[in-house]
Give the backbone structure.
Amino acid sequence: MVSLYTMTTTIDELDAALIELLAAEPRVGVLEASRRLGVARGTVQARLDRLAERGVITGYGPDVDPVALGYEVTAFITLEIRQSGGHDPVAAGLATIPEVLELHTITGTGDMLCRVVARTNADLQRVLDSIVATEGVLRSSTLISLATQVPYRIIPLVRAAGTRG
């Protein structure tokens, strides 16, 4: 498999329009997508297959809001880890904690950055205790999100990439 870090991927306006349609209406079928985009059904299917093969489209699952599940607190946690063990064992340990939504290796004062959710501030303490109990984690620093000003989004980037493609 080709590494996504070494592969340059470009998309064109049709790819961008297809991605935007799927993002807006994930359950739209290939035939309906072809009608709306004004291209053949086979073209849509070929584009979808190519976009998935190249790693541009990574899934078709539903977007889930943690708040609707009762997780009303979002926090970002910078972790310092023991250097001798490396990142992978720490990541494997943190992956077992359901409230850890994302984990990134970072530059700067910390080694890793987690996005976590919790039901309450008291529940956040439980999540933090689980995180710092993970083998290899030395220290943590937590920031609680008060509001999401720009939620995760990808369509503006897709549009920009499609016009440059």
